[in-house]
Design brief:
Layout lengths: L4 E3 L6 E3 L30 H26 L1
Antiparallel strand pairs: 1-2
The structure holds zinc ion (ZN).
């Protein structure tokens, strides 16, 4: 019996959508694994990456504030 072929929205790989497949219908079985099980190919942010992101956001806010002050002042 053939199952419909779907393209995974996470990794772009094609997979058979079986009726008993756990997780999302638009994700392959590998990408349907819960995050704490460390799925292969999934983007995972570690603490350093999160810290960098916070610094970038803070810097961006500062620059925008600077621009607003300059325009108003
Ligand atoms: Zn996938």
């Amino acid at each position: 019996m053939a199952f419909p072929i779907k393209t995974c929205v996470v990794c772009g790989e094609e997979f058979e959508l079986k009726p008993d497949k756990p997780g999302f219908a638009n994700r392959c079985p590998r990408c349907s694994i819960p995050e704490d099980a460390e799925p292969v190919g999934a983007r995972r942010k570690d603490a350093v990456e999160r810290q960098n992101e916070q610094e970038v956001n803070a810097e961006r806010r500062r620059v925008i504030r600077d621009m607003l002050y300059r325009r108003n002042g």
